[in-house]
Amino acid sequence: MDTYDALLAAITPKSGRTREILDPATGAVVGRAPVHTVDDLDSAVAAAAQAQPAWAARGHAERIATLNRVADAIEASAEPLAELLSREQGKPLNGPNARFEVGACSAWLRATAATQLEAEVVVDDGQTHAELHYRPIGVVGAIGPWNWPMMIAVWQIAPALRMGNAVVVKPSEYTPLSVLALVAVMNQELPAGLLTVVCGDREVGARLSSHPDIGKVMFTGSTATGKAIIKSSADTVKRLTLELGGNDAGIVLSDADPKAIAEGLFWGAFINSGQTCAALKRLYVHDDIYDAVCTELTAVAETMPMGVGLDEQNVLGPLQNKAQFDIVSRLVDAAKESGARVLLGGNPTLDQPGYFYPTTLIADIDNANPLVMEEQFGPALPIIRYTDLDDVIAQANGVDVGLGGSVWSPDLAKARGVAARLEAGTVWINGHGGVHPMIPFGGAKQSGYGLEFGVEGLKALGVPQVING
To answer: Is the pLDDT of residue 349 over 90?
Structure first.
């Protein structure tokens, strides 16, 4: 599958019901995705349950070797995978976008394969010997989002396979082709039935989260859908890892250098055109440097080209779907109507194809404004002025989600002190949103629960068993 046409042909259904998938930048047809049913899901789960014991029996060493071969296969098909991702999701090839995302898939597979999880001796006092082991769960259901469809799929798939599980993946209805293609490439190296994609609607998703033969569900997406999964999984007492919505705050302290931090602030907020759960979505800046930060951030934002993803010079793309475009439009309009100051953008061109919303910076906005209090999930950043540190920490904590946050200051001790007071699963210092395959990642409050990545991520894909004696 070393060409785009070969990759697309490999995932195009030969029979059965299908639907068109359109490019959010141009409106052109990208391809056709299968429309699977609950019966298809049941068949996939049955095949996974049949394939899983032999995969678990291979042991860690052989599974590790296989995952590294899967990473090789992804790298061999990297360019057609990136092109398909750009066409379907909308993100450009360059910058921290499509090629970056495909590269992260192979990198995460290799890091997961390299992560060791040894049995832990918890007591050995001469009378009692107890060890903690982690055994495979069985079949894992993975439900992914449309913003980083390939990368987040691998975040779910890699540790599940590494720990000896089988996986059934349900991609977003907006971006099924990307995940179908990724899994088709991966399955060149995996046993039949072990990893399957089922493309379906909410009925299929509800069946996956309640299926009696699925032992764990991993979900990345909205808090509302996460709550529904919790309810539907309750009768079968499934294990859950939920990475849900966020409304990340960044706090710029008075000693920060506006020019030095401007580009970091920009990418913290506008990576993937703002369509990232742990993007910087509310920026609080001390009054002493407020105007300078606004000026420097605007200067950086003005240089970032937005357009069709296959155009090599672009680094920002469209919103992936009209529903998200409408959310961003509504929130920016509410900010403008309130009298907030538009530094950049805020004026989408509606008579052209594609869901392009211009890079938008909104200053002098009240903390209670909907653009601040609701997750915009798009390229619009509110910038809030503050003077009192205790007050701004309270404002940053004043939402019901807590995925990430950031503090910006050259004084690391001071920044870490502020970070410790933020109610968020991860707080970055002088950056925002960066993830690492060995650093645990998860949310606080209604941003979900459970950890991904590293040793903790592997543990989450196993059943703990204590052998005592």
So the answer is: no
Angle at 398 between CA 394 and CA 402, to 5 degrees: 110
Starting from the edge strand earliest in sequence, which strands make up the sheet with 462-468, in order?
120-124, 129-136, 462-468
CATH number of 4-244+447-468: 3.40.605.10
203 is catalytic: no
Nearest C-alpha neighbor of 315 from the set 93, 88, 2, 80? 93
Question: 251 has which bridge partners?
Answer: 284, 407
- Say what the pLDDT of residue 1 is: 78
Q: What is the largest CA-CA distance in the chain?
A: 78
* In the chain, domain spans: 4-244+447-468, 248-429
**Residue range 361-373: mean pLDDT, rounded:** 98
CATH no. of 248-429: 3.40.309.10
234 DSSP assignment = G
Tell me the C-alpha distance between 291 and 217, whole Å. 46
SS (H, E, C) 214-226: CCEEEEECCHHHH
Which H or E element spans position 277? none
Give me the pLDDT at residue 352, please: 85
Q: What is the phi-psi region of residue 169: left when phi exceeds 0, alpha when psi lies from -120 to 50, beta otherwise?
A: beta
**Total length of the chain:** 469
The residue from 243, 296, 423, 456 that is catalytic is: 243
Whether 257 has a pLDDT exceeding 90, the answer reads yes
pLDDT digits (tens, 9 = 90+) for 382-430: 999 999 999 999 999 999 999 999 999 999 999 999 999 999 999 999 9
Mean pLDDT value of segment 83-90 = 98
DSSP result, 296-325: HHHHHHTT--BS-TTSTT--B---SSHHHH
Task: Report pLDDT for 450.
Answer: 97
What tens digit of pLDDT does each residue of 209-242 get? 999 999 999 999 999 999 999 999 999 999 999 9
Cα–Cα distance between 125 and 468 in angstroms, integer? 12
Cα–Cα distance, 266 to 255 (Å, whole number): 19
Q: How, if at all, do strands 216-220 and 239-243 pair?
A: parallel
51: confidence class by pLDDT, cuts 50, 70, 90 = very high
DSSP codes joined into one string, 12-59: S-SSS-EEEEE-TTT--EEEEEE---HHHHHHHHHHHHHHHHHHHHTH
